[in-house]
Amino acid sequence: MIWSFKLNQRVEVQSSKIKARIIVWDTKRQIIWLVTGITFGTLIVYMDAHDETGRFDRGVFAFWEIILLAIILTLFYLYSRKKT
Prior knowledge:
The chain has 84 residues and is mainly α.
């Protein structure tokens, strides 16, 4: 048995049922983190995309949203790679 408790949790055991449950939880955890990060990030970017007079600036919002998504997708790719 190998037990490793990192961000990308990997547990190898003899039973295939336990391994399947861990893989499903890992996928659920990744989806939860993605949805939460994108939701809160978009909310913060939306609040920041208003100028001094309170008008919404679409260009600023689009720029920061692209930056936010690039960061989230890059980190998701780096953390979800299979380490062999």
